[in-house]
Design brief:
Number of domains: 2
CATH topology of the largest domain: D-Maltodextrin-Binding Protein, domain 2
Number of strands: 12
Largest sheet: 9 strands, mixed
Shape: globular
Oligomer: single chain
Number of helices: 10
Radius of gyration: 25 Å
CATH architecture of the largest domain: 3-Layer(aba) Sandwich
Length: 293
Amino acid sequence: MKKEMKKKLSMMVMVSSIVAMLAGCGSNPTTGSSTGAPDAPPTAASDLPPLPAEVKERGKLVVGVKIDYPPLGYLNEKGVNTGYEPDVVRRMAEYAFGDPEAVEFVPVNATNRIPYLDSKKIDFISATLGVTEERKKVIDFTTNFFDGGAVTVVPKDSPIKAIPDLAGKKVIVIKGSTGSTYLEQNVPTAEQIKLESNADAFRALKDGRGDAMFHDAVLMSEFTKTSPEYAVVGEQVAFAPMAMGVRKNDAEMLDFLNASLEKMRKEDHFKVLIEKYMPKAGDLDPMQMIPRP
């Protein structure tokens, strides 16, 4: 009898413990439990258009991003996708799935990003994609969520002081970029050295393979901060709204992205990201480059 009583008492203690534990888990999900349990994940936004069925079923976004374009898109010291654009995409994943990490980032560059989209390796492009009439022929664009131009960077002792001075000079550009197109149309005698990646372009500039580099203003501003022997000269030109790209006639994806960007604008979330990644430096004020409420 004593053994049976002990068994009953043990069982009652165990049941009581389980009940207490479950009661603790039922605390307010926005504050976490009193025992330090993690907060419940945010729920997906219900006020947005639905994603395409295959994306919703997959449970994550697959997005083409830059990994060599600080502060817009790069890998940090831990190899994690970081920057203004990856964080915009994470916000979209939070809207869609209640989880900002429900994203697979696929590295792309200016040359392969549209082919990756066309071949369905990615759902959409968020990779410093400037809106141009030529690109509109092959992809559809969202509303823009950043606006920037191109500038000229040269060694500080260079005689090049303005864009017209690039005539007849070797100028390093990124293949397929709006900067490259601008030079073709406005300084056709500039000898363009077209490279695939920013890393290759910066290396070429430092190796003296070009007289100048003509590229995105935000990126080049970051470059001169860490390489003070170079300077930005002349004016900022080739302004192009930056948007996300989707496949032609992919109306569901386009509607979801546009609604998400509008929601972020109303929340002033772009301002949060600009303050995090691009504080004002000199004459360049990134706060003027984003949509605001």
